[in-house]
Amino acid sequence: MVGGEHPKLNHGVGWEAFDAAARPTQRRNVVGSGTWIQPRERGRWQATLRHIALEGRCFVIGCKQFVTKEHYPADIEILGEMEDGPDVLCRGGTSMYSPLGEVVAGPLLDVEGMLVADLDMGDVARGKFDFDVIGHCARPDVFELRVNEEVGTAVGGGHVRDSE
Who's near 154: CB < 8 A, 6+ residues apart? Predict the structure, then answer.
């Protein structure tokens, strides 16, 4: 808690962590923490979380679930399809990184559990002294990003021409 209040958190799901153009917009009004949820552990995820922490000089919490076949109800329709697969369906990998990309906690792999850590939010301000992607390093005289924040749909129902 910061000053008795919860800090503003940024969050994303899966692919949003890989969208370099989206991250500065998401950081705009954030005190200095990010939470990223990725459904599968692919080994490369930890490097991505570390990069996001370094790039934004913020704490990053990567939330990864640990899932086994036993977590599914016995009457689930696809249980037969899962029989030949591995017992562990998702290895987990929850972890926390500091604004300088150092591991604060985790990764928590192949076990159920919860990570808890005391975060010094002053580390965010100290980290931005040498690199502030939204502040003094943003170079608005050179770069500009415009974001359409209007609500829309990912797929539209436009007219499709008949092929001749």
Answer: none
